[in-house]
Amino acid sequence: MTGSMAWAGRRAVVDTARREGKASIRLYWVPLGAGGHSVRLNGRVFEAASAIHERRHRRDLYHSALEVLTPGGRFVIEVAPVPREAARYGVVSQGAVGSRRLQGFRWMRYGLRCWRDGVIPDRAEARRAELLLALVPSVPMHVWGRDETGAGEMWTSNSVISWLLTSSGFRTELLDPPAGGRAPGWRAGIVAARDSTVQGACASKSMSAASEAPSPLISR
What digits encode the pLDDT tens for the residues 193-208? Predict the structure, then answer.
């Protein structure tokens, strides 16, 4: 399917959802670096070093992102480098990369986007979708590349997505990247969410919003 056809099809789904009052959340596993050469190169270097340290074969790395569809619109939630026009891309908060001492430089910060009609490079329920969107500004912006949660792995863009899904009541333990790949930081977000006071309030809201047990997402 061509890009234009895919966009037209997605647009039709959005219009139908708005008209019928439906909502959904989709999880995307995007090949790391799909949006930029620098990220792809750094990712390869990181994975090569990790493979040597852990005495295993190299694996493909993935970047997780969410597409949230509500009657009020379609939103893309992901973490990416902070652009010059941050507001234009729906950046709601920022965090440091590597060290808080360097966050004065824009290129040493990462941004959390909640981007209306946003685009994911390379491509469940209504109340949970609304809840997830409401939680975006509450995501803890830990230092990228550091283990500040005690999870045993560093905080990354994947941590943000897994934090949001876990805090919204989804069973993130059922979600895995494509076979043969891994998503660094995914567990860190899960651990942080389960230990968070925000997650406690979130769980009660999820229980009142839906009587059934949390269901896994559609993973693309």
Answer: 988 744 455 445 544 4
What is the DSSP track for 27-86? EEEEETTTT-HHHHHHHHHHHHHHHHHHTS---EEEEEEEEEEETTEEEEEEEEEPPSST
Question: Any residues with CB less than 8 A from the CB of 128 and at least 6 apart, and which?
Answer: 25, 168, 169, 170, 206, 209, 210
Q: Where are the beta strands (DSSP E) in 86-147?
A: 91-96, 109-116
* Whole-structure pTM value: 0.55
> Which SS3 state, helix, strand or coil, does residue 92 take?
strand
CA atoms within 13 A on the CB side of 102: 10
Please report, for residues 46, 62, 147, 173, the alpha-carbon distance to residue 56 in angstroms, rounded to integers and kept in the order given.
Answer: 14, 18, 22, 23
